[in-house]
Amino acid sequence: MRTILATAITAGVLIACGIQSAHAAPHSGPAGNTAGSANSGSARNPADLQFLEQIDFGAADYATQDAVLDLARAECAFLDTHGNTPANRTRLAESTRKAVRYPYLFLDAAVKTICPWHRL
Predict the structure, then answer these.
(1) What keywords would UniProt list here (predicted)?
(2) What are the boundaries of each domain within the chain?
């Protein structure tokens, strides 16, 4: 739970500081490949891209995308460890309320794309 809270705080700080409005992160692939450039991030897999689009962060910079992806993965890891119960989903969403504008929709998008084995 502490990892999720720390990741949520980091994501919240990045978003609150306006990093989302910085340079758009290009999609991976031949046309958008920026390997070796100063702001290039790791390549995004299709699940990551789908998640970013669902939460409307597809055009955000890599630092913000990385923060929200880390938070989504931390939420999935919590469900892996503690179980995918309605109580745990509520606990997760409420623990990220200060960092995420719509925490229940964020968690739902994470489950649908990052850890679909937790779909109810």
Answers:
(1) Signal
(2) 2-20+47-118
Sequence-distant (≥ 6) Cβ neighbours of residue 90 within 8 angstroms = none
Model confidence, pTM: 0.67
Residue 33 has pLDDT above 60, yes or no: no
Which among 40, 42, 39, 105 has a CA at the least distance from the CA of 72?
105
Give the angle 107-91-120 at the CA atoms, nearest 5°.
Answer: 50
**Locate tokens 């958008």: which residue?**
32
- The pLDDT tens digits of the residues spanning 48-88 come to 999 999 999 988 999 999 999 999 999 999 999 999 999 99
Residue 29 sits at φ, ψ, to 5 deg, of 130, 175
User: What 8-state DSSP symbol labels residue 99?
Assistant: T
Residue position matching structure tokens 């929200």: 68
Contacts of 5 (CB under 8 A, 6+ apart): 95
Rounded Cα distance between 120 and 117, Å, is 9
Looking at residue 5, its amino acid is L
Is 79 strand, coil or helix?
helix
